[in-house]
Every structure is written in structure tokens, then in C-alpha cells.
Amino acid sequence: MSADAAQLVAAVRAALADAGDPERAAAQQKYMKSSMPYYGISASALRALLKQPLSEHRLAEVAEWQRAIRTLWDEASHREHWYAALAVARHRYYKVWRTDLKSLPLYEHLVRAGCWWDVCDETASHLIAPLLDAHRGTIEPVMRQWSRDPELWIRRVAVQSQLSLKADTDPALLGELIVPNLGVTTFWMRKAIGWSLREYSKVDPEWVRDFVAEHEARLSGLSRREALRLIDR
């Protein structure tokens, strides 16, 4: 790891270690059912704490950006280190690198190592979605593979991979990613399916209504209610 990346990682760790509230930390850990402890830093406080390290330690190479993210993630002692890694990934300085095809293995690693909704949903919406939108011909086949992966959270990210794309969502792809998961009974998948359909209903409610009608027999009640929530209100 370069000196610049090492300095960024050290500065982030120092900023987080000096903050936090033990009482809040215990509540956060319990709420998230996390085996990893928290420092007890709110989302707004975390953003404020990271502002100086991110501005003072700007990275000049994509490989070092990826290394800093991996180091914060893989060597995390507290869950806020994961949130900081995602903040580095999403920072405006690195917008071009976020949609570099070479970043896909990094994003996959974050999902497989994270395996929980707080980090996987953010990865889907803010890292995978822009990459998919920029490289559809390459990433769409990967999302189809992910939608059938043995790992639930990879499948969930595939279903949610267009969640933030709004009018740029490809409905045909959305359907292709949902259908292999209609038989998955876990809450996390049923919710993901409903959420993705609900978001697209803001763009094309008739498509969503037709999709729900076509797959009525296999669509869970939760997925159906979420999908039609904005249409039927």
C-alpha cells in the first residue's frame, strides 16, 4: 500500500477511534445484530468526521483507492470502518473510478464479506448501479449470474442493482433478475423484490402491475404489497 493510501487509512481510523458513544454503540450493535462492535457514531457525525481525512489525503491512483477501501474493510475492528470504506468508495473525488470495470471484483468482495443489509444495499444502490448503467453490455450478464448465486446477499444485490436508476431502469432486465428469486422465501429477498418493483412503479406503474399479475402465483404477499404500494394508494 502506498504512503498516501496508508495515511488515509490511518487518518480515518484515528478520527473514528476518538469519537463515539458507548451506550449508542451497544444499541447499534443490538439493532444490527452485528457480531462486530460499533463505536457509537451517528451517520451525520460519521460524515463530519470523515470530511477532513478524505479531503486531506486524496489518492492519485485507482489501485490505491481500491487498496484503501479493502484495508478499511478487511481489517475492520468496528462496523464504522465498513461505513468509512463505503464513504471512500462513494467520495466525489473518485467518481470516475467507481464506474471502472476493474472495480467490480472489489464490489463483489464487499458484498460477500459484508452479508448484511446495511452495507449490501448501499453497495447495490451507489456502486453496482452506476457501474451497470455505464457498462450494460458487460455487467448485465454478471447480474444475471448473481441473481442465481448460492449466496443470498449476492442475489439480493442483483435484484436491487437498478434500484437507484429510476427512468434508466431496464424493465426486461429487472424481470430477469427477479424471476429466479420468486421461490426464495427469506424476508430479505421478498423485501428486495417488492422494493425494486415499488421503485420502478414510480416510472412505469402499468409495467409493475402487469408483472405482478403475471407472477401472482409465485409472488409472496410481502413482495406484492410492496410492489403495488404506490399504485394502489
Question: How would you sum up this structure, described in words?
Answer:
This protein is mainly α and 233 residues long. 68% of the residues lie in helices and 0% in strands.
Count of runs of 4 or more consecutive helical residues: 14
Rg, rounded, reads 19 Å
Structural class: mainly alpha
Q: Assign an overall shape.
A: globular
Measure the end-to-end span: 53 Å
Low-confidence stretches: none
TL;DR?
This protein is an all-alpha fold. It is 68% helix and 0% strand.
Task: Reconstruct the topology from this structure.
Blueprint: H1 3-17, H2 22-32, H3 43-56, H4 62-74, H5 79-90, H6 95-98, H7 104-114, H8 117-134, H9 136-146, H10 152-159, H11 171-178, H12 187-201, H13 205-214, H14 221-228
Helix pairs in contact: 1-3, 1-4, 3-5, 4-5, 5-8, 7-8, 8-9, 8-10, 10-12, 12-13, 12-14
Which key terms come to mind for this protein?
233 residues; mainly alpha; 68% helix; globular
